[in-house]
């Protein structure tokens, strides 16, 4: 397996790269570093490049004899996608279509794709199974759903074999403490709570306390980044073993409100985060909780990290060890 990992210098990508390397395959990270970090790529081959650069992509595929792609490269912030939709359609849709063109033109037909729980919108049932109606409430989710539909069409017409993984909320960090979540600016809940607890940021804003949930704050399903990474390893192996194109949810199956996550993080750190209630953030669904039964049954995936405090503790370890992230 010679694997090209687009976005492999990012948060989920860098963790997955580490797990892919353990399979013995050659891993080539391809990233333009727009949100990623060069020093998040520890031992793989690194090519600094953009998924829009067809020439460099094709050269990289040929040079390293690539036979599959794991595609993380994208913009992924719900809030920003509502303000800058053009950026999101361009990078996530046009960029991915370009990658598919270059792959197919160079005889590469295996792809693991980062999709998202945001494709569902406000689902009518919970936990969410893969077959329910998809009606995204934000631009980000729409860009990922467009690509899922395009890949299904390419699969039928051009022999693309893909597995789309719909992640719920990625969090935590590798136990080694040398890679972790470092977005500039950070917008994700768990790192923001930890930074507030550790005195690295101002008051944490709780986006809305008038949702139809038990304490009025949004419910999400938090999954450890290494459990996500392991699913990519299984998905890739399945494709090499002739698995047909498919789509899987990836979550823990437990929902936590924003307030519950804050309480858990405060318990883990023994510190208190300064916080205030703020208006709702545009595009946020009230509740997103996964059923991951399908990937368990089909690919034998299991989550290793099921306790939310344990998960937060791994993130805390990274933040304490690297108070300035990768810049430190
Ligand atoms: N973080 C989550 O909770 C979450 C949940 C669901 C889905 N996802 C998806 O997972 C993937 C990775 O997310 P992440 O949290 O690791 O984000 P990230 O921003 O840390 O990583 C994305 C990486 O892609 C690179 N990139 C972006 N555009 C590129 C381009 N045009 N060419 C080359 N490289 C480019 C960035 O530099 C970065 O290294 C994304 O596709 C995201 O939509 C993330
Ligand atoms: O300062 C903050 C930040 C977040 N939140 C809330 O915390 C929850 C989680 O927010 P995140 O920004 O951490 O994550 P999202 O649920 O918005 O989105 C994440 O998970 C999604 C899937 O569920 C997408 O795939 C997306 O890429 C990924 O960023 C949301 O209810 C949000 O409103 C706050 O209250 N205050």
TrEMBL record:
Residues 3-251 form the NAD-dependent epimerase/dehydratase domain. It catalyses: UDP-alpha-D-glucose = UDP-alpha-D-galactose. It is an enzyme of class 5 (isomerase). Its cofactor is NAD(+). The keyword Isomerase applies. InterPro entries: Epimerase_deHydtase, NAD(P)-bd_dom_sf, UDP_G4E. Keywords: Carbohydrate metabolism, Galactose metabolism, Isomerase, NAD. It comes from the Bacteria. Its EC number is 5.1.3.2. GO terms for molecular function: UDP-glucose 4-epimerase activity. Pfam families: Epimerase (PF01370). Gene3D superfamilies: NAD(P)-binding Rossmann-like Domain, UDP-galactose 4-epimerase, domain 1. GO terms for biological process: galactose catabolic process via UDP-galactose, Leloir pathway. Pathway: Carbohydrate metabolism; galactose metabolism. Homodimer. Belongs to the NAD(P)-dependent epimerase/dehydratase family. This is UDP-glucose 4-epimerase.
